[in-house]
Amino acid sequence: MRISIITPCCNAETFLAETIRSVVVEGYNHRIENESLLVHEMCGYMGGKGFRCIDLCDPVHRPKDGALWQSDLFFLPAAREEFTSNRYSWAGPE
Fold it and tell me: Is the pTM of this model over 0.85?
């Protein structure tokens, strides 16, 4: 995903924080354009906007070597309940 595509909707920080419930972005593991962000860079960028990656789906692997090419990343506001626990299981005390 090129930063120039996502920046217009992310410049209004208050708008994002108060109205957006989720964001789905194609994340690439290889730089396909000079402006494109790699998966870890996109996670950092969205983290700076108050979102964290909660899931991914539809991984695509490069045919020539099986390397991860891209997947869809799902981001939620970082204040969501899902991010309050660092435990694998919800069972038992924190």
Answer: no
